[in-house]
């Protein structure tokens, strides 16, 4: 009974805010689009005193049949993967530096990592427009130094998109990595050195393998939100290359095709569960 | 005598304002088992970390077989260390843990397999090769850590509280095993410990450290029977300290104890000077009723308290001068009840004059 009372709040939370929305999404995904508010017919109707099925799998079918959506999916996963990889690459030395710093310096350094969060998300992304556009600072410096004669088209490219992603999500990679490196017993690295391992070998054989769970957590914390990211691709990315976040937005608000948008959202959710499961397997092993 | 294996010359180490080691000199011979004994903050662990290369001395030199180690990083030093926490690699199997040092040397696969098997067999861990450290008991982990640091056959092994993490029942047996392994490998062991019984039982020579200095260095019996200072006398076996003054005839008058001591040797100080004499509790005996009190090396008092310890009795006797003397009697003795008047006596050679 006590157990039940203790477990009830988290289960209720999960039911209300995770399971129920997913079920609603799935229901809308199975509905037929229609004119009106909301712009769909519920998949289960009520006729002559008994429930009737009036939904269809058409929206789900569109996802598999129309290559456009599959492409947006693949592109999103690719962008999220590259962003997460770049974040890890940058976060590792940062996290190592913080973990190896004197204890009194660690907190200030961590606060510096979190400092960008103190300004709004949109201004931070918007700032990159000012930096990267043809008449922006980066091109201004390059042309001023005579490196280039014409402005380099930086904005609205994959480069700009990845810069924005890495900038926005870097702290999510730094924090779990730092935590993993701080948990590492310094005696392990000393023991490796004592047994004849050079500093690089110590890193390769002890520090790095033992930090992998932290790296995996950092990768996922970037990968998951980046896969559905909408704002950064819209503001910085190339306009012709669609990502799932933007396709979702367009289907919901431009085409008002809620069933299709819901089907997309459910598919994205399924695509993200896979890496999470992989991570759990990795955690369980170590 | 040949050159020492390890030689520390005037090694000094400061951590901020604290002086961990203060111009320490120490020599370790080939194949010797040395115990570094001291309380917390005595600098014993710092000494180990300096020899291993994890810390750099502020002054002085560390020589191994005549070669100056001082500037060498840990991985270039031919010494090994066994850590107090064992520091086994949690992501590697027992085999890979033990093979780690050999792999760094580029030893061939077959040779690694042979040597790892050999050292695991030495400590009875055959068949455990594929286990992970967390699947082992504390004693097994201790043995893996021991052979991991020995598999490269270092001339010198540093051990930081090697028995510290084991429970009491396992300590004695593991101590014997440690000695056996040391004899089999013929490596010199330098073991840090705060446990005096462990140091006396295992080591060929014991170095007692006090506040970063060497208080005394010698074989266990010598340290126990002839402690040089109050600190050593008190740290090893909790000796009684009798404060006195050297008399004109060379005997020592102790006011607080209310007795006169006759030493087996000329006193180290001139007549009139103060002298402290250490007296081991188990060297004191109770006089039989009716036995005459000798004129020296004897005292009378009241038995204040008595505790039975199985192998012996611990008695606290308040002497006529007011000082309380700790006396250890054999278990077979039948001491009088507390509150009785008792007379104590001891042999002249039980009096150990101290330098301070």
Overview of this protein structure:
The complex is a heterodimer of chains A (286) and B (356). With 286 residues, chain A is mostly helical. Chain A has a single domain (14-285), classed as MetI-like (MetI-like fold). Chain A contains twelve helices and four strands, in the order H-E-E-E-E-H-H-H-H-H-H-H-H-H-H-H. Chain A has helices at residues 2-29, 58-65, 67-100, 103-114, 121-132, 137-144, 158-183, 186-194, 199-227, 231-236, 244-254, 258-285, and strands at 32-33, 40-41, 44-47, 50-53. In chain A, helix 3 (67-100) packs across helix 7 (158-183). Chain B is of the alpha+beta class. Chain B folds into two domains: 6-230, P-loop containing nucleotide triphosphate hydrolases (Rossmann fold, 3-Layer(aba) Sandwich); 238-353, Nucleic acid-binding proteins (OB fold (Dihydrolipoamide Acetyltransferase, E2P)). Chain B has helices at residues 44-52, 94-104, 109-122, 138-150, 168-185, 196-202, 220-225, 230-235, and strands at 6-15, 18-28, 33-37, 59-64, 67-68, 79-82, 156-160, 188-193, 205-210, 213-218, 240-246, 252-254, 259-261, 274-279, 285-286, 298-308, 312-319, 324-330, 341-345, 352-353. In chain B, strands 6-7-8-3-9-10 form a six-stranded mixed β-sheet, sandwiched between helices. In chain B, strand 4 (59-64) and strand 5 (67-68) form a beta hairpin. In chain B, helix 2 (94-104) packs across helix 3 and helix 2 (94-104) packs parallel to helix 4. The model of chain B has no long low-confidence stretch (mean pLDDT 91).
Strand content of chain A: under 5%
Shape assignment of chain B: elongated
Write down the CATH topology of the largest domain in chain B.
Rossmann fold
CATH topology of chain A: MetI-like fold
What is the terminal separation of chain A in angstroms? 34 Å
**What is the distance, rounded to the nearest whole angstrom, between the alpha carbons of the first and last residues of chain B?**
31 Å
* Count of helical regions of chain A: 12
């Amino acid at each position: 009974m006590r157990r039940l009372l203790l477990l009830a709040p988290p289960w209720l939370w999960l039911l209300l805010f995770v399971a129920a929305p997913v079920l609603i999404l799935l229901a809308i995904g199975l509905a037929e689009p229609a004119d009106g508010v909301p712009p769909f017919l519920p998949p289960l109707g009520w006729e002559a005193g008994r429930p009737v099925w009036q939904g269809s799998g058409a929206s789900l079918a569109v996802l598999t049949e129309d290559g456009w959506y599959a492409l947006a999916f693949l592109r999103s996963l690719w962008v999220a993967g590259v962003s997460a990889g770049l974040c890890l690459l940058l976060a590792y030395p940062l996290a190592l530096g913080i973990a190896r710093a004197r204890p009194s310096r660690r907190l200030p350094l961590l606060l510096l990592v979190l400092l960008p969060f103190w300004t709004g998300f949109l201004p931070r992304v918007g700032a990159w427009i000012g930096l990267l556009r043809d008449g922006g600072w980066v091109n201004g410096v390059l042309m001023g130094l005579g490196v280039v004669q014409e402005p380099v088209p930086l904005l609205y490219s994959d480069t700009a998109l990845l810069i924005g992603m890495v900038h926005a999500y870097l702290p999510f990679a730094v924090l779990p990595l730092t935590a993993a490196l701080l948990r590492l017993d310094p005696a392990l690295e000393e023991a490796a050195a004592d047994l004849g391992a050079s500093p690089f070998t110590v890193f390769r054989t002890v520090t790095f393998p033992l930090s992998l769970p932290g790296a995996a957590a950092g990768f996922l914390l970037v990968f998951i939100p980046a896969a559905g990211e909408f704002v950064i691709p819209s503001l910085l990315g190339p306009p012709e290359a669609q990502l799932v976040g933007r396709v979702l937005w367009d289907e919901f608000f431009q085409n008002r095709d809620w069933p299709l948008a819901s089907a997309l959202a459910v598919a994205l959710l399924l695509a993200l569960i896979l890496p999470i499961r992989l991570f759990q397997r990795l955690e369980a092993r170590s | 005598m040949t050159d020492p294996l390890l030689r520390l010359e005037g090694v000094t180490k400061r951590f901020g304002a604290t002086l961990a080691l203060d111009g320490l000199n120490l020599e370790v011979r080939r194949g010797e088992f040395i115990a570094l004994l001291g309380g917390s903050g005595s600098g014993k662990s710092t000494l180990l970390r300096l020899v291993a290369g994890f810390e750099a001395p502020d002054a002085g030199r560390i020589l191994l077989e005549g070669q100056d180690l001082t500037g060498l990083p840990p991985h270039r030093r031919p010494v090994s260390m066994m850590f107090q926490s064992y520091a086994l690699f949690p992501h590697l199997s027992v085999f890979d843990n033990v093979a780690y040092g050999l792999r760094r040397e580029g030893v061939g696969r077959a040779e690694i397999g042979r040597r790892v098997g050999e050292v695991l067999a030495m400590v009875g861990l055959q068949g455990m090769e594929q286990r992970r450290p967390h699947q082992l008991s504390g004693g097994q982990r201790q043995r893996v850590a021991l052979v991991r640091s020995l598999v490269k056959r270092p001339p010198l092994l540093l051990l930081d509280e090697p028995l510290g993490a084991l429970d009491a029942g396992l300590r004695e047996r593991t101590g014997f095993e440690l000695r056996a392994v040391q004899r089999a490998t013929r490596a010199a062991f330098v073991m840090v410990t705060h446990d005096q019984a462990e140091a006396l039982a295992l080591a060929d020579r014991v170095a007692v450290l006090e506040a970063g200095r060497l208080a005394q260095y010698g074989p266990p019996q010598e340290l126990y029977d002839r402690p040089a200072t109050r600190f050593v006398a008190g740290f090893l076996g909790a000796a009684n300290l009798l404060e006195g003054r050297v008399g004109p005839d060379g005997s020592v008058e102790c006011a607080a104890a209310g007795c006169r001591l006759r030493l087996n040797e000329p006193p180290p100080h001139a007549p009139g000077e103060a002298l402290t004499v250490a007296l081991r509790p188990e060297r004191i005996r109770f006089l039989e009723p009716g036995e005459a009190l000798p004129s020296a090396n004897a005292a009378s008092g009241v038995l204040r308290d008595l505790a039975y310890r199985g192998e012996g009795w611990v008695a606290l006797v308040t002497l006529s001068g007011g000082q309380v003397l700790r006396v250890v009697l054999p278990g077979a003795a039948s001491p009088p009840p507390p509150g009785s008047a008792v007379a104590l006596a001891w042999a002249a050679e039980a009096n150990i004059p101290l330098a301070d």
